[in-house]
Amino acid sequence: MTTGVIVFAHGSRIESANEAVRTVAAELARRAGNPDVMAAFLELGQPSLEGAAGLLAARGAGHIVILPYFLTLGLHMERDLPRMVAEIERAHPALEVTVAPPLDGHPALVEILAARLAESAAPTSSRLRRRAD
User: Fold this and answer.
1) Under CATH, which number does the domain 2-104 receive?
2) Positions of the chain with pLDDT under 50
3) Are 36 and 67 a contacting pair, CB within 8 Å?
4) Which of 83, 85, 119, 128 has the most CB atoms around its CB within 10 Å?
């Protein structure tokens, strides 16, 4: 049984934002050595979660792991995602579906925020020149 992976994001009217999620999924596929990793979207992007699950099932996946690209356990995670997973399980009864938790609470998030703070808080010579003017 192969495992497919779906990086599940909200989706955006700005296609470059959707493409950024696809890039993350492609990098995850490369790092994991799993060609069956794809991005899917709640709305405003393609494929949908159900569509991605169908594609992975058609490729022979017997297990799908959904990795929410959401920070917190909000309305979409609590209401929409369980409904969508139930639809996937009805459409593909032999498919085992596992949903990972959202990103909130992962220790790497604090590391990322600390790095962004360090990048943004460190004065640069151009900032100093602008302030001096």
Assistant:
1) 3.40.50.1400
2) 125, 127, 129, 131, 133
3) no
4) 85
